[in-house]
Amino acid sequence: MPSASRFRFFPPSWLVLWSAVALFAIFQHGPMPLYSTRTLAVAWEMWDQNQFLVPQINGHPYSHKVPLLFWLIHAGWAASGVNDVWPRLLQVLIGATWLAAAAALARRVFALRPTVARLTPWFLVALAYSFLFGLQIMYEVLLAATVALALCALAGRPRWGWFALAVGAGLMTKGPVMLLHVAFPFLLGPWWSEHARADRRGWYRRGGLALAGAIAILLAWALPAGYAGGEVYRHELFFLQTAGRVVDSFDHARPLWWYLPMLAVLLFPWIGWPRLWRAAFTFTRPIGDGERFLISWLVPAFLVFCLVSGKQVYYLLPLLPAAAMGLACLLARQQARAAGSGRRWGAWPLALAALVFAVLLALLPVWLASGHLHSHWLHDAARLSPWFAVGFAALGLLLLVPGEGDGELQRIAGVSLFAVALAHALFARALFHNFDLDPAAAMLGRAQREQREIANVGQYEGQFHYQARLRGHIDEIRIDQVIGWAQAHPRGLVVRYPAKLDPRAQRYALLIQPFRSRWLEIWSAPTLAAVEAGRTPSEPGQRTARYPPDYWRYGDPVERDGEQ
User: Fold this and answer.
1) Mind listing the pLDDT tens digit of every residue in the chain (564 residues)?
2) Does 323 reside within a domain?
C-alpha cells in the first residue's frame, strides 16, 4: 500500500477549488479600467521603453508604486512576448500563493490546535470581496502574500533571513505600508511568542537587523531610481506618496469611522452565518498565544488604518488571514463545546439571501417591461438575469441542506465561491461593455500609427496605453482648451467623457461608446473645436460609432445615470 507521504504534495481541496474558479473567472472579460488598465499601462511603457528602473505612465515617471509587480509581468513577457494571458495567470498564482502562505501561517501559529489550522483556509477562500478584487491586476494581493510570508517566518521559531526577504518583497510591492503590517507583531513578540519571551534581546536585535536588511532592499532600488527619475520624481517617491496619504490625503480621503461598516463587505458571507455569532457570544475561555498573535497583528494595524486619511476597502486585504484565523478559533471552540450537537439548517440566512436575489433577477425583465426602471445598469442586466436566477436559486437550495461541523463550513465556502463566480459571469456577459475599451483603443492605436496626436479631456489614467500599445504620451487638456489644442494639432483626435450625450455627437463624433456611467467620445480635433465654438462642422465626422447590442431599445440613450 502506498504511504501517505507520497500524497503530501498534492494541493489541498480548498486550493484546487479556488484556483479552478479563479482561472474561470479571470478570463471572462478584458482588463478593467481603471485599476488593471493602469497597472498594465505602466508595465507596457517600461517594457516598450526598455526602462526597468523607473516606472513610467503616459511618458512620465510614475511615483505612486514600486516596481516588483511590473517586474513579475515583465518576466512572463520575456518568455512569451507581450500578451494578455500572462498577467492574468500571474494574478491567480499570486492569489494562490497568498492562500497557501496564510494556511502555513495558521499551522505555525496554532501548531497545538490543528482544528484552527484546518478551518482557516476555508474561511479565507470564501470571502467574496477578496476573490473579486483578486481578479484585478493590482498590488494588494501581492502585498498580502508578502505579509503572510513574513509573518510565517516570524511565527514559531523565527527565521530572520526569510523574514527580511519577505518584508523586502513587500516594500518592493507597495512601499513603506508593508512595515505597518509586520511592525506590531514584531514589537509585541514577547506577548505572544515563547521564543521572544525566552530571548527578548536576541529577538529585537535579530529582528531589527532583518528589518534593516529589508529596508536596504528597497533603498537598493529607490536611490538609483530617484536619481534617474529626476527631482520631482524623487520628492514624490520619498515623501508625497506616503505622507500625503497619512496626514491630509490627496486621494481617497475618508472619515475616521469609514472602515467599520466596510467590515461587513470584507467578511461576507461569514457575517451572515448564525453559528459564528453564537460562537462569538459564548466565547468564555482565556486566550492563548495564538489569539495574542492575532490581536497584536489585527487590532493595532486596523486602528492605524482608521487614523490614516486615505482609505480604500482593499487596503485591509492583507489583514484578512488574521480575520479568517480568528473566525476559525471561534468555530473550533464552538465545535468543542457542542461535541457533535450542531444545529441543522444553520446557513438559512445565506440561503434566504441567495433565493431572494434569484427572485429579484427573475423579476427584473418584468419590471423593465413596466417602464419603472431607469438605471442603464439594470436595463443591461435584465437581458440575461432570468438565466442566472436559476443558478442562484440552486445555490440557495444547496445551503438549505442540513449539515454540521466541517461539512457545513466547506459547503458554505464552496457555494460562496460559485455564487461570486456566477455574479461575476453576469457582470461579464451583461455589463462589461460599459468598461470595454477595445473599440476606443483600436481607433487610438490606428491614429498613433498614422502619426496623429491624441488629447484626453480631464486626467488621463493610462487606460488606453496597453490595449492600444501606445508609445509616447497623450495630452491632458480641459474642455476650454480644445479650440487652442485643435489649432496646434489639426490632425489630432480628442477623447472626452460627457455624462450626457450631445445629439451633435451622434452626427459628428468618430466613435461613441458607453464608459462606466458616462459616454466615451472620440472626435476629430477640428470638428470638436467647431462644435465647442458654436459652429457647424463642414462635414459629418462619425464613421464608426459603436453602441452595445439593443442599447437603444430602452428609450433615450442620451441619458445615463451616475457619475464618473
Assistant:
1) 344 444 456 789 999 999 999 999 999 999 999 899 999 999 999 999 999 999 999 999 999 999 999 999 999 999 999 999 999 999 999 999 999 999 999 999 999 999 999 999 999 999 999 999 999 999 999 999 999 999 999 999 999 999 999 999 999 999 999 999 999 999 999 999 999 999 999 999 999 999 999 999 999 999 999 999 999 999 888 887 655 555 444 456 788 999 999 999 999 999 999 989 888 887 766 789 999 999 999 999 999 999 998 899 999 999 999 999 999 999 988 776 665 444 555 789 999 999 999 999 999 999 988 877 778 899 899 999 999 999 999 999 999 988 777 889 999 999 999 999 999 999 999 999 999 999 999 999 999 999 999 999 999 999 999 999 999 899 999 999 999 999 999 999 999 999 988 888 888 999 999 999 899 999 999 999 999 988 888 765 555 545 544 443 333 444 454 333
2) yes
* C-alpha separations of 429 from 270, 439, 449, 516 in Å: 28, 17, 32, 15
Q: State which residues form the domain around 510.
A: 438-554
Which set of grid coordinates corresponds to residue 391?
443558478
442 and 430 both lie in a single domain: no
Residues 383 and 319 in one domain: no
Burial label, 467 (beta-carbon count in 10 A; 0-12, 13-18, 19+): buried
Do 84 and 179 belong to one domain?
yes
- At 496, list the grid cell: 472626452
Among residues 393, 410, 434, which one ends one of the domains?
A: 434
Whether residue 295 sits in one domain with residue 170: yes
Pair 331, 368 in one domain:
no
Buried b (16+ CB within 10 A) or exposed e, 405-437: eeebbbbbbbbbbbbbbbbbbbbbbbbbbbbbb
Distance CA 315, CA 317 (A): 6
**459/540 same-domain check:** yes
Tell me phi and psi for residue 404, to 5 degrees.
Answer: -155, 170
**Structural domain count, the chain:** 3
DSSP per-residue letters across 135-154: TS--SHHHHHHHHHHHHHHH
Q: Within a domain: residue 547?
A: yes
Query: 357 - beta bridge partners?
Result: none
DSSP label of 437: -
Task: Name the nearest CA neighbour of 54 among 234, 175, 201.
Answer: 234
Peptide bond into 158 cis (omega under 30): no
**Residue 130 to residue 16: CA distance in whole angstroms:** 17
Tell whether 462 and 402 lie within a shared domain: no
**Angstrom distance (rounded) from CA 342 to CA 4:** 31
DSSP letters, 370-431, are HT----HHHHHHHTTHHHHHHHHHHHHHHHTS---HHHHHHHHHHHHHHHHHHHHHHIIIII
Backbone angles phi, psi at 496, to 5 degrees: -140, 165
Angle between helices 140-154 and 160-174 (to 10 degrees): 160
pTM of the model: 0.92
